[in-house]
Amino acid sequence: MFNLIDKVALITGSSRGIGKSIAECMAARGAKIVVSSRKPEACDAVVAELTASGAEAVAIPCNVGRKEELQALVDGARKAFGRIDVLVCNAATNPVFGPTAEVSDEAYDKIMTTNVKSAFWLCNMVLPEMAERKDGVAILISSIASFYGNRKLGMYAVSKAAEQQLMRNLAVEWGPHNIRVNAIAPGLVKTDFARALWEDDKRRAIMEQITPLQRLGEPEDIGALAAFLATKEASFITGQTIVADGGRTIGDPS
């Protein structure tokens, strides 16, 4: 049960943090992994770790904000392994930590392109081939920031809310072809991406206090969930945003 033997998983932003954990968890269940992020040396390092553990993996660097590089990523994955069974859109950016009034047009475009349009592009590149085989899974990594107003993560939250609606649309459109599309909305996870939040002792203590499980997330908390969603045991789950936040969004903040 819960295996991904002979499945091919393409994971963007998989050289560190949540993306790397997803790669590790899927590889541990037998998947062949396409590791991708902007820096070739970072991708190569993850591939070296995966292959040392007995997994099959290749590195294909890519800037998800460039459509031609995404197409090269998809083509490279197919050349390496023949097909793509699992697509994980994890790469994201947030260049502005502040109110939306401080978001320039350039920053807005970067956030929306990296966090939303890249997933739109990738799914349109990958899902049609999945439909031909009547089998496939796409997972979009969102955020609990999309569920409430934010003073500091406003535009990032907007992009993650848009990503969830994209997921629902794709689930409806591709469901008849046996393609499942879901999103994961993590809470605060101890990654480089969120380092400014969890390395602040005062902020971290507050977050731990208002989280029912009394701790922050670890990358493997999300990696294991993504791996589950890719297995046949999750074959009746589609169009859903699975929240993994230690209970943060259901807790009493007082």
What does this structure look like?
- The protein is α/β, with parallel strands linked by helices and 254 residues long.
- 45% of the residues lie in helices and 14% in strands.
- Strands 3-2-1-4-5-6-7 form a seven-stranded parallel β-sheet, sandwiched between helices.
- Helix 1 crosses helix 8, helix 3 runs parallel beside helix 4 (105-133) and helix 4 (105-133) runs parallel beside helix 5.
Radius of gyration using CA atoms only: 17 Å
What is the class in the CATH system?
Alpha Beta
Uncertain runs are none
Strand segment count = 7
Shape: globular
- Report strand order across the widest sheet: 3-2-1-4-5-6-7
CATH-level-4 superfamily name: NAD(P)-binding Rossmann-like Domain
How many independent structural domains? 1
Order of helices and strands, N to C? EHEHEHEHEHEHHHE
Mean pLDDT: 95
Total helical segments:
8
Helical content (DSSP H or I, runs of 4+): 40-55%
**Overall SS class:** alpha/beta
Second rung of CATH, namely the architecture: 3-Layer(aba) Sandwich
